[in-house]
Design goal:
Blueprint (H helix, E strand, L loop, with lengths): L4 E6 L3 H16 L3 E2 L8 E6 L4 H19 L5 E6 H5 L1 H7 L5 E3 L7 H9 L4 E3 L20 E5 L1 E2 L10 H5 L3 E2 L2 H13 L4 E5 L8 H4 L4 H9 L6 E5 L8 H9 L3 E6 L7 H6 L6 H14 L4 E8 L6 H14 L3 E6 L17 H26 L3 E10 L2 E5 L11 E4 L7 E10 L2 E6 L1
Parallel strand pairs: 1-2, 1-3, 3-4, 4-5, 5-6, 7-10, 10-11, 11-12, 12-13, 13-14, 17-19
Antiparallel strand pairs: 8-9, 15-16, 15-18, 16-17, 18-19
Helix pairs in contact: 9-10, 13-14
Length: 438
């Protein structure tokens, strides 16, 4: 049994990746051999995303590809887990009989037992409690070198009308602070100098365990770990950014002055339909406050166009806000009606073509803002985390660049992947900053 070769395909978000790393750790500890490709493996584990249509399509394509390998005798067992497995368990079981096991989001810790059972030709289905406390499992680190994600909570209790995550992943559950800090220390000892703090909503951290928001206190403890150099914050909800947290971000040198704050829209009527707790005025006031309190701040946000009820006036208000706020990083998505959400059945939804065109207009507007930002960096000396090499150049990320979602810096120099260095920005190459190591 221990000589069996296992591969894992991880799809979707960074939070899903951590669940994949935890399963790999359990598999490795059990003595199985981890291999990189499904072809020739005794089993493949496909950790799926089921959030939006494109993610579901990607998951289905991967499952069907593995089914073909299985038919050809090039792959053994197929195990499907994660969000799509949780959300569409009946459909998956009915439509893809080649699958040997289905695990929901509450059953990641059962992966070793599941493998043993399927190798005995037993079909397995398990859907553990998705509202249970977060499993504290080690990780088989797949990121870096030099950086890693650090998940501080699981699930979501915000219940935005467009989002299926609470129904898939369960209610919000914070990890105990001592467990988060212990994992951060282990990551630092493994050479991770940048920790990307993630959850569906990191600003809610601690409310379920301690009765109050504790993110500022957690960040203070994490910053005391000597080998941690950058703390990067992802998914801060605007209505929960209190003064204590803002002060901690502003005064703590280890916290990147880069905040990912998904606002989704600026029109108050649309925000109300989205079941958000903000108004257009409260978001404007928050961003102004953040700019004043945190010099050099870079903001990232997420936006939805074509939400039910969005008028031309609502869209123009969003465009005007972006021109004024000059948010440096923005992801925009045409509205996708997710099954089982309140927004799915809302009337007055703009045509898909209208939603797509509005998204394209936002990206054109944002491209101009990004051009201004990049022009402002030419001639500056920036701290850069080296993350690899491409085409004869070293590549790195500044404080303003998160992994995969933002830009990179091409530079000439001599340093190792995972090291910090200083780069003088000299211009642009392929629409990215470029420079030379000092």
């Amino acid at each position: 049994m221990e000589n069996k070769k296992i591969t894992l395909i991880s799809l979707g978000c960074s939070k899903n990746l951590i669940n994949s790393e935890q399963m790999l750790c359990l598999i490795d500890d059990a003595g199985f051999t981890i291999v990189p490709e499904p072809e020739g493996a005794d089993a493949v584990i496909i950790n799926t995303c089921g959030f939006i249509d494109s993610a579901k399509s990607e998951a289905i394509d991967n499952i069907l590809d593995c089914c073909e390998l299985k038919k050809e005798g090039l792959l053994g067992k197929i195990i499907v887990c994660g969000c799509m497995a949780q959300r569409y368990k009946d459909e998956i079981k009915k439509e893809i009989p080649e699958i040997d096991a289905i695990l929901g989001v509450g059953s990641y810790s059962e992966i070793v037992d599941t493998l043993k059972k399927v190798f005995e030709d037993e079909y397995v289905e398990s859907y553990g409690d998705k509202n249970a406390p977060v499993d504290e499992i080690g990780r088989y680190l797949t990121s870096g070198p030099g950086w890693a994600y650090l998940k501080i909570a699981e699930g979501c209790s915000n219940c935005c009308s467009f989002c299926a995550i609470p129904s898939i992943r369960g209610k919000y559950r914070s990890r105990p602070m001592e467990n988060v800090v212990a994992e951060a220390k282990a990551l630092a000892e493994a050479g991770c100098k940048e920790l990307i703090i993630i959850a569906q909503d990191i600003t809610r951290y601690g409310t379920d365990l301690y009765g109050e928001r504790k993110l500022h206190e957690l960040l203070r403890q994490l910053s005391e770990i000597p080998d941690v150099h950058w703390l990067r914050l992802h998914y801060l909800y605007p209505d929960s950014l209190g003064d204590e947290l803002i002060e901690e971000i502003a005064s703590n040198d280890k916290i990147c002055k880069y905040l990912d704050i998904p606002i989704q829209h600026i029109s108050t009527p649309i925000l109300r339909k989205m079941n958000r707790r903000d108004t257009g005025d409260s978001i404007r006031a928050l961003f102004k406050k953040l700019r004043n309190k945190i010099p050099g701040l870079v903001l990232r946000t997420s936006l939805i166009t074509g939400f039910p009820g969005e008028t031309e006036e609502d869209f123009e208000e969003l465009c005007e806000f972006l021109r004024e706020a000059k948010i440096e990083r923005a992801g925009v998505f045409p509205f996708s009606p997710e099954e089982g959400t309140a927004a799915e059945k809302m009337p007055n939804r703009p045509d898909e073509e209208v939603a797509q065109r509005r998204a394209e207009l936002i990206m054109e507007l944002q491209a101009e803002i990004m051009d201004e930002y990049y022009e402002s960096k030419i001639g500056q000396e920036l701290e850069v985390l080296c993350v690899g090499e491409d085409g004869g150049y070293l590549i790195g990320r500044t404080f303003a660049d998160s992994h995969e979602v933002d830009g990179i810096v091409y530079f000439e120099g001599d340093c190792n992947e995972g090291d910090f260095t200083t780069v003088r920005i000299t211009g642009l190459m392929d629409d990215e900053l470029c420079g030379e190591q000092i």
